[in-house]
Amino acid sequence: MEYVETLFIGGGLSCLTAAGSLGKDCLVLEKEARPGGLCRSDTTKGFTFDRTGHLLHLRHEKTRALAKELLGPKLAPRSRNTWIYSHGAYTRYPYQSNFHGLPTPVLAECLEGFIKAHCRAQARPGKKDPLRFDRWVLDRFGPGVAKHFMFPYNQKLWTVSPATLTTEWLGRFVPRPDLSSVLRGALEDQTNEEGYNAHFLYPKKGGIEVLVHALARRVKHMRCDAEVVSIDLKKRQLSLRGGETLAFGRLVSSLPLKELVRITRPLPDGLRKAAAKLRAASVYNLNLGIRDPGSDRHWIYLPELKFSIYRFGFSSNFSKHMAPEGAAGVYTEWAYRGRRPDPASMRRKILADLKTIGIIRSAKDILAEKAFDLRVAYTIYDRARGPAVRLIRRHMETRGIHPVGRYGRWEYSSMEDALLQGMEVADMIRDN
Ligand SMILES: Cc1cc2nc3c(=O)[nH]c(=O)nc-3n(C[C@H](O)[C@H](O)[C@H](O)COP(=O)(O)OP(=O)(O)OC[C@H]3O[C@@H](n4cnc5c(N)ncnc54)[C@H](O)[C@@H]3O)c2cc1C
After folding, report:
1. pLDDT digits (tens, 9 = 90+) for 128-145
2. Distance from Cα 39 to the centre of ligand 1, integer Å
3. pTM above 0.90, yes or no
């Protein structure tokens, strides 16, 4: 039986970064025919489609240096051109500081609510933020923003009620504008740079998978079509689909934490019970190649419940090479939980959404399509998540199994976080 000092489960960004940095004595096992996980891109009829929009927002010097080393001039810088479509109007992102353009009654409701929430917060300095997301939204932005954006949008994306969600995922993802920015954004069309995603990098050609190829070139040993189906902690062995067994010194796993628990033996019952509480939303991502509707927008949020999708965007506005001349690439995102709705009926509703918004006139405008079903897309931040993740990680890590990446750690994080975690894991292994 082959022995490998460090085995990596999964060929996504996190494990590729770590394995590429370590070099020797390690092997990446990837279940699919090619690495990349969520960062793969597929080309059909001249259109290149990512698994929904995948844009690089790099805040750290380390990751900027890595991106430069890997791709250099192959990456193009872009400035966000992002909107919300509601009440038949486009308003700028983020919603909470750009009420300009909303119908007057909605604008007044949002502004009045924000001002009252601001005054209440001023009167109670030092008040702790609530852990419940719905209460946090009402405290911070008031009932207008809650009703017209935060509640319905987050309900659609996370597939659970805002009262179920905690605030643990907010971090940099939800901008908190001050009063003057909100007032300005209510009175005029302001272009501001609020939020973590005001600027981003995107490959000039080839979609986001170009980054995967650059990372994979640094990895010495990788096997694709190698699905890990069981892990024996006592024998320190794992089995692949097909029956082959490999022995390891340590494991780095980017497979979803819940799945890691499912395939690992022996584990205490408490750990399995904790894993059973972990929930995730899936995303059905229908990509379309269409006749160019002439939009220069990057992506658009759809908070209203009358639309099935929560967001769509134009991949050909990230890079013109994502679509042939005269055409545009559009990605749409529909979140669901549990059993996947029927794809044909989802497609009908998605096309109806795009028609209502004026992106297509009829199905005749569709030149190509490609759907991806992302089974584990958003790990749900309810009250059970934090304690369960901590318990499972502690148990695994003390036994030389290191969960890494967005799903390994069962968190809401980005490609940059996957790169950073990959680098940290490699450092940790080198130091031991
Ligand atoms: C809808 C959506 C939009 C996003 N948009 C952005 C964005 O714009 N910008 C951004 O920075 N981030 C974005 N992200 C997040 C980004 O995709 C992730 O942070 C990143 O891809 C995670 O990489 P990873 O290596 O942790 O995991 P993954 O990409 O999930 O890689 C895990 C790998 O493990 C493999 N695997 C699974 N099970 C097994 C097994 N049993 N045996 C062997 N291999 C296995 C999988 O095939 C996969 O290749 C988005 C995510 C979603 C869901």
Report:
1. 899 999 999 999 999 999
2. 6
3. yes
